[in-house]
Amino acid sequence: MKPYRVLLYYIYSPIENPEQYREEHHLLCLRLNLLGRVIVAPEGLNGTVSGLAADCDAYMETLGNDPRFAGIEFKVDDSDGHTFQKLHVRVKPEIVHSDLPVDPLKQTGIHLEPEEFRQLKNDPNVVLVDMRSNYEHAVGRFKGAITFDMENLRELPDHVHEIEHLKDKKIITYCTGGIKCEKASAYLLSRGFENVYQLHGGIIKYGMEAGGEDFEGQCYVFDNRVTVDVNQVNPVTVSTCYRCGTPTARMINCASPACNNHITLCENCGHDHAGTCSDNCKNDPDLRPYDGSGYYGKRSVGYTPEQGFISRRGQKTEVALSTP
User: Fold this and answer.
1) Alpha-carbon distance 49 to 223, whole Å?
2) Which residue spans adopt a coiled-coil conformation according to this UniProt entry (predicted)?
3) Higher pLDDT among residues 308 and 128, named by residue
4) What are 240's strand-pairing partners?
5) What is the pLDDT of residues 36-84, one digit of tens each?
């Protein structure tokens, strides 16, 4: 068993004082030596963190014992090490930015557990709709699913017309971990779609609990791994190299910091073109060294996780940390 864990989770549950809870949550992550990204909002909590197995267990137990987060579910994956380089705990208006006029606590699509989804997905009366960004579904998506050419969930209203003719079908939405579908399915219901479902726990949980059947390609994730395998039943590669067109599932960020596009690039082209998507990018004077991973953390000088306690007034909060 690998020594580290990667946790993916979200929960819609009101948080009265997000700023205060952000401080508490940041302290918790520091104490447990966790790295990753956590969003605190009035509507709930959303996070992806990595850490040693025991520290992740303590983190899950602490959140699970908080009455506000009763019922929180974690997708847990093994890792050889941290999958993040930094810790960020931030307050934002929403736990997933959508600007959609919906409240998942009042109305959302019917949740399907992974095995239920597996049995229903091939029904001729069912339509699968991918609610992720274009660069995510470019490297992997469910067989036969409808995808939208959108950069983020805020653009969903501009694409709903593409499935208006399918209102008589059962619509099943899906995304990486389930969070986008809470609002996306609610929005479809508000637009007159009546039979709306969502894959509970998203692609990641489906892969873990039901084998990932018919998920073609790889699943994009928001950490150093960039993509992960999901399908243990009938895996195929659906993406091609941005440079030469050969089949490949290797997704990277363009090594040009001015570009930073998410692209699929085969190993040969990655080596031959220094991890870039075009010759213009290859000639960027600020080109980042390509190490084969295609993942580039944001540069920062003297970064420490404790920086999160520097207030807007520039005064640092006293932090007592226990040693591991």
Assistant:
1) 9
2) none
3) 128
4) 247
5) 999 999 999 999 999 999 999 999 999 999 999 999 999 999 999 999 9
How many degrees, rounded to 5, is the angle at CA 174 between CA 88 and CA 104?
70
Q: How many CA atoms lie within 13 A of 274 on its CB side?
A: 15
Work out the angle at residue 296's Cα, subtended by the Cα atoms of residues 295 and 299, and round it to the nearest 5 degrees: 165
Catalytic residues: 175
Query: 3-class DSSP state for residue 2?
Result: coil
pLDDT digits (tens, 9 = 90+) for 208-253: 999 999 999 999 999 988 899 999 999 999 999 999 999 999 989 8
Alpha-carbon distance of 98 to 203, in angstroms, equals 20
Instruction: State how far the Cα of 208 lies from the Cα of 215, in Å rounded to an integer.
Output: 12
Report pLDDT digits (tens) over 143-158: 999 999 999 999 999 9
The confidence score (pLDDT) of residue 72 equals 97
Average pLDDT, the chain: 92
Q: Is the pLDDT of residue 273 over 50?
A: yes
Go through the domains of the chain in sequence order and give each one's CATH number. 4-95 (3.30.70.100), 110-219 (3.40.250.10), 239-292 (no CATH)
CB burial of 18-34 (b: ≥16 within 10 Å; e: otherwise) equals beebbbebbbbbbbbbb
The two structure tokens encoding residue 308:
């999160």
Helix, strand, coil distribution of the chain in percent, nearest 5 = 25, 25, 50
Q: Can you spell out the DSSP letters for 284-322? A: -TTPPPP-SS---PPP-SS--GGGGGB-TTSPBPP----
